[in-house]
Amino acid sequence: MAKPHGRESQAKRAARAQTVLAGLRREYPQAECALLHRDPLQLLVATILSAQCTDERVNMVTPPLFRKYPDAAAFAAADFTELGEVIHSTGFFNAKARHIIGACKAIIERHAGEVPRTLDALVALPGVGRKTASVVLGVAWGLVEGVVVDTHVHRLTRRLGLSRGNSPEAVERDLMALLPQGDWIEWSDRLIWHGRRVCNARRPRCSACFAEGICPQVGVTRRAQV
Predict the structure, then answer these.
(1) Catalytic amino acids?
(2) Which of 65, 88, 120, 203 is the most buried (most CB within 10 A)?
């Protein structure tokens, strides 16, 4: 286990980030967004639903959801209670239903029914924060405006000693300073896969991790026996 001495320089953290990214590329060459979708609107809705919910659960809910509401106009006209019932199992369904309806109404009224392609326009939609906007921009169009920091990226970035930030916004700022902009999308995609498969929240499988020799394992108290 690597133990950084004192405050590491920015250059050392950046070098470790690149070493980790190289390992992630080897381990997860096919890593991509796990949310099933066919177009930017479906991705936007699925990402809203993914808040405090697993991608697996979202992917169970969205096929019938998208059949019932095939476009922004259908979502904008949706009955609030009825939509809430369809997405109930994703949790926080009242807030999510309100956000989806509000976002789709704004898409119809301000963007001619098309999901906007800029960060500022996306975050102006009801219920759409920087993380959701970055997912849509990066996955749908390959536009890199920020680093997607979900629970896995937040936890693993801190565990790797690359950020001390306590909020997604703080972790994102640190990653944007450490990684070239061209690496922002794949950092999140691949790290999420690693968080699910190896770097568990409570008992990470450190001995099975390609980064064991360079990871400071910040906050790790118990490890899974492999």
Answers:
(1) 131, 150
(2) 65
